[in-house]
User: What shape does this take?
Amino acid sequence: MVEQEVFVRNRNAKVMTLAVMGALVAGGAWGQAKTPKPGLVVLSKDENRLQIVDPKTLQIVGSAPTGLVPHEVAVSADGTLAVTTNYGAHLNGTTLTVIDLQEMKDVQEVKLDKINGPHGIAFWEGKFYFTAEGSDGFDPCRQSCATVSSYDPATKRVDWTIPTGQARTHMILFAHGKKEFYLANIESGTISAVDFSGGAANSTFIRVGKAPEGMDLSPDGKELWAANGGDGTVSVIDTASNKVVATMDVGTKRSNRLKFTPDGKLALISDLGAGELVIVDAGTRKVVKRLKLGKNCAGILVEPGGARAFVAVSGEDKVAVVDLKTLAVTTTFAVGKDPDGMAWRM
Assistant: This one.
């Protein structure tokens, strides 16, 4: 078990861009604008910022600085805190940023000891669990390896870290109602099913396609779909047996994220290489539509009610809004440079 140093960030060390300053003036002074619930949380990687967008007006109503090149974000169940994983450039990020979403200010920066390249993150039972793609001599790794850790906002410390035993562990996803999570291991070509109901973490490594990255559980929890960015396929895993039961060729050039709609009828896959959102009928397991959105389609977030999906088009500094009934783009909006990771503030 490893505990990490936590220190308070000097916000003045960050320089606010003119675009963000303008948005804050429009929405009110920093910390005075009312942040909405639900609210759309979006990361701007090139600006090292977290933004809150009103999902009704699609206007930025709050903003706060993060660490270097934030890739993913998770929000606490009560909507008070967000934690960003600051991946850095070329895997050299070594921090998390903790942000008060009510006051829209960063309240802590967590310096990670011997861990670098934090990426996937999820909130579960009071803690934030996150992956990191590398480490520097973390025992028992004895060499560079990926890890998964938990940050406890009550103690303000990283209180648990273990090696994943796989290469380039990227994303993390918790099972429905179970003390179990899944990890996407890009370079190993596996999905890890990690059960820690007995205290110790017991991992099952499931061989899938090449370079799995995006993944999601069906709403009933019976299947996990993994989008394989290296070969244009999706692996369907039966969660009861932890075995691949089907492989679909969805023709993506580089799959990035995969999300089910709340009713389980559709799966949405962002294709970084083609600049498309690929829409799959989950029942027939066939592609029903490809929406051309623009350069570098990345993060996907489905509205809780299932009416809309938000897709970050990182290469064009915008987020596309997709109507999930008509399967058409209704609008786009700007939200800083290189948007990617998103989450809901509920």
About this structure: The longest helix spans residues 18-27. The chain has one helix and 29 strands. The radius of gyration is 19 Å.
